[in-house]
Structures are given as structure tokens and as C-alpha cells.
Amino acid sequence: MEYIDIIKELFAVSCPKGYTAEEISAVRKLYGGIPLFLEQFYLELGQSDELLYLQDELILPGKYPVFLDYEYMIFFNENQGVCQAGIVKSDVKMENPPVYVGYDNKNWVKTAETLSDFLTAMYGYQASLCLEYSSEAFYWVSDQEIQLIEQSFSKRQEGLSNWLNFRVDLYEKGEGRIALMHTGGDVQMMYAANNEKDFKKIQAVLENIGEII
Prior knowledge:
Blueprint: H1 2-10, H2 21-31, H3 36-45, E1 57-58, E2 72-77, E3 84-88, E4 99-103, E5 106-112, H4 115-130, E6 133-134, E7 139-140, H5 143-152, E8 154-155, E9 160-163, E10 166-172, E11 176-183, E12 186-193, H6 196-206, E13 211-212
Antiparallel strand pairs: 1-2, 2-3, 3-4, 4-5, 6-12, 7-12, 7-13, 8-10, 9-10, 10-11, 11-12
């Protein structure tokens, strides 16, 4: 599936490792189903070393009971538990359902039209924070600097909305990602790549812009 290939290449996953069908079946029993696109992600990449210990976390199959009292099927958690991504429980038998973000199990709002778009965008965002070659800091960027980014890099089709109450736009250069986090009237930037060559191409454009946070 395309979204799995994109994530695999972006994180340079060398030895893909997933969960077993038996481990996934435990989740299916809890909710009466599991979306095909989420199941495939768990089976193919769910335990891959490169995708563990990122900024925010994919819910591991054994941790699903913790969130059973939530209104949604929770599968992704912000690192401090501020918000979670979930699927409407009545949608769990859909192949590629919409994804919502909630705060304290309430105030649920849509963040992506499809699960595959959410996973592609979320891991693109995680890449901008966690890949080996990184800007290692957040920067405030101005409208003029945003225009430079838009002119210099390709904008990804997928993005995030309502994650930590901000919108994330993603741009790419090779196997690197630039994330612009729109937080009300201000915009933060972070960027990283999985190899030095692509990182230096990004850095050549961005190293002298922005105000470090």
C-alpha cells in the first residue's frame, strides 16, 4: 500500500517488523473490528525499530484496553497525553475511515478524511522532528520566509489539522520533511532528513531564516 511505502522510505526502515495476526485479533475482539489500513500498518511496520520512540506514539495492540472507555477507537497518542487520534467506533469495519482528534475524551474534531492520509501526515510530521539529520530546534518564521519555503520545496498533499490545536503543513526534499506548524497567528518550523545529502539541500535554503524558539 502506498502510504506504507512512503513511511518506510522516509524512515529508511531496513528490516520491517510487524505484529502477528493473533496480536491484532485481540484489538478486533475489543472493538468488533479494525480498519484494514490500520491492520496492514501494524502487520507490516508496527514493530519496526525506526518507528519506535518517536515524539508521539502509535498505540501498541496490548495498550488498547487503557482507552476502552473513550468514545473513539484510540490508536495514536500525543507524547504527554494532551490529545489522541481516534476512529468513530461505528467506523471500525471501514477500510480507510476518517480520523478525529480529541482532548480529554471530548471536543472531537476531524483531522483527516482518511486513515491513510492521517498516517502519512503524522509520520511526515514525526520525521521533521525525529530523523537523524535535524535542525534540532524550532524556529518562528515570517510570512516572507514561508513564501521562500513554498517556492523552494514541494508541498505534500497530506497534512494535519487540530493536532495540539494547530495545523501542520508538510514540504519535502528527497527523503526529508519540513513542517510548518500554524499556531494561531504564528508559524513554527522544524525540518529533518534521513540522510546527510538531503539534509544539506534543505539546510542550504533554511539555515539563515527564522528566529530560534
